[in-house]
Amino acid sequence: MQTHLRGRDLITLQEWTKDELDTLVDVAFDLKRQRALGVAHPYLRDKVLAMLFFFSSTRTRASFEAGIAQLGGHGQFIESRTTQIAHGDTPQEIGEILGRYNDGLAIRQVDWQVGNTYMREVAEASRVPVLNMQDDLFHPHQALADLLTIIERLGDPRGRTATVSWAYAASYQKPISVPQDLVTLATRFGMHVRLVHPPELKLRDDVVALARILTGWTIDRPRQGGGFTFRTGMHDGGTKVLLGQTFGASGQAEGEFALDLLAQQTTERAMGMILITHDLGVVAGRTDHIAVMYAGRIVERAPTRRLFHERRHPYTDGLLTSIPRLASAGHGRLSVIPGRPPDLVDLPPGCPFAPRCRSATAPG
């Protein structure tokens, strides 16, 4: 058992040795046993854990809040939108402020290419441990909870087969963080892991490479004897553990991924595609022609490239100039189209865009 873990951040399991993870598992089983027997275990009496959520949660929030309460402490639930983060509080300031008033800081931030970096910047400034309640790359506490369940049900996990399978969810596309932690943690504990997913939905190359390395050895405990394979469909094969996870393509927003799949289908099936959107950025690289409509009428039609460089109608110009530019100075006001859309039942005479058009002239 390792006894030097006080004050450690838990942002990714890869920063913990196998012996340290064994200690976490042993302590977790002991705490769960005490809870089942009704034995009080207030090891964190009078301690406060700040729980900062950028994204809503049911199970993660409930488990963290219940856990700190059972240990005699208090969970301070904080939604990011109720703080000054939107008004400019930096990760460093959050680390300094919440680290000063609390004894631990847990964060859930899953924005792609933001979440993990944000946590590390907070941890750098915090005087108390930072715990990862899920970011864009990892979800260590869920992976540990899954491992505990496997050990509870099956005993020694070495040599067991676990299938981590992509699962459809109609609501939204979740980050790749859960399967990435599962495939690397299970292989460290000697399990053979099968990752089953559609070919378009992949994990990060460095995570896959790490899982393959861990199948044969770990730095601190060589030759664990696990395995790692890919599949694009479910097959029988003696799996003892099936973990269904919803996750999206690495680095892609849900809408972007769906559009890429549609584009792939149009090519494979030799068919056309019509996109209806208010976002001209969506159609910029995915269409051959664009028809711009206002008040139910086509006001401009042109090949895509020409429309972006030689727009003729003021409404088209208004749509394009209202798109935020990365090169623009920060905190400036965005360009907007003034006025309101017309009543389609009672359209004005002439061009329906005239009441909102800066180029319109009075008749006469």
Order of strands, widest sheet = 2-1-3-4
- The H-and-E topology, N to C, reads as HEHEHEHEHEHEHEEHHEEHH
The separation of the N and C termini measures: 90 Å
**CATH superfamily of the largest domain, called what?**
Aspartate/ornithine carbamoyltransferase
Query: What is the arithmetic mean of pLDDT?
Result: 81
Beta fraction: 15-25%
What is the compact description of this entry?
This protein is of the alpha/beta class. Helix content is 35%, strand content 16%.
What can you tell me about this protein's structure?
The chain has three domains: 42-136, 3-Layer(aba) Sandwich (Rossmann fold), CATH 3.40.50; 141-245, Aspartate/ornithine carbamoyltransferase (Rossmann fold, 3-Layer(aba) Sandwich), CATH 3.40.50.1370; 274-356, no CATH class. The protein is an alpha/beta fold and 364 residues long. The strands form three sheets. It has a four-stranded parallel beta sheet, sandwiched between helices. A four-stranded parallel beta sheet has the order 7-6-5-8, covered by helices on one side. A two-stranded antiparallel ribbon has the order 9-10. Strand 9 and strand 10 form a beta hairpin. Helix 3 packs across helix 4, helix 5 (140-154) packs across helix 6 and helix 6 packs parallel to helix 7. The chain is elongated, with a radius of gyration of 27 Å. It starts with 17 loop residues before the first helix and ends in a 43-residue tail after the last helix. The protein has helices at 18-37, 59-70, 91-101, 115-125, 140-154, 177-188, 205-214, 254-269, 280-284, 304-309, 314-321; strands at 48-53, 74-79, 104-109, 130-135, 161-166, 192-196, 227-231, 241-245, 289-294, 297-303. The protein is 35% helix and 16% strand.
